Amino acid sequence: MNQPSPKRRGRFITLEGGEGAGKSTQVEGLKRFLEDQGIALVTTREPGGTPVAEAIRGLLLSRDHPAMHPDTELLLMFAARAEHLRTLILPALEAGRWVLCDRFTDATYAYQGGGRGVDPARIAALEVWVQGPVRPDLTLLLDMDVKTGLARARGRSEADRFEQEAVEFFERVREAYLERARSEPARYRIIDASRSVEAVAGDLQQAVSSLMGTGQGT
Ligand SMILES: Nc1ncnc2c1ncn2[C@@H]1O[C@H](COP(=O)(O)OP(=O)(O)OP(=O)(O)O)[C@@H](O)[C@H]1O
Ligand SMILES: [Mg+2]
Questions:
Q1: Could you tell me if residue 40 is inside a domain?
Q2: CA of 149 to the centre of ligand 2 (A)
């Protein structure tokens, strides 16, 4: 059995949403909030989070490879995830720390599934292969109008390989995220990300509070 152990003591929280929704902006504030509650927390991101996985991120986001095959993209996402999960996320959870991750497997369903049209069953097969039974305890979906999010992201930095896609691609990404959130309401909170940084932060704090004092991770 080479699948990851499900023996986790910390909580695993993921932040999801389209380009420019404010995921990275919210990580620091949410980290401070949790630490103020006495929680030992690791913050990280996908694709990436470890040296090997960050190198794979470089391949995935580089505009030097605009024509990557969707299967290659999918496998690289899960290759990075395998490294990240086994060397950073699971050791932290097993040591009792909480992990807050900027994007995780829901992003693969949204971007490679919804966006690129990869069959979700193929993504699910890789999810089981790489993660075994490991899933986030809570997923915070920052949802907002695609064009406004893209305008925010483009105001921030030069477009990466994904950000060069057409608006229709991101509309499919948004729809795939929302569909997943509706199909698994116990794990997701959908948050209106079009509001101020402070208003979004307040909702995120309320959502993570539901995880406190509720026993062990599964
Ligand atoms: N609530 C908000 N209102 C207005 N601007 C915001 C808000 N949240 C973030 N921004 C700004 O929008 C831009 C994108 O935010 P951020 O990088 O946090 O998004 P992201 O969800 O991490 O995007 P990506 O998916 O591209 O990583 C940044 O310039 C940030 O300062
Ligand atoms: Mg970001």
A1: yes
A2: 11
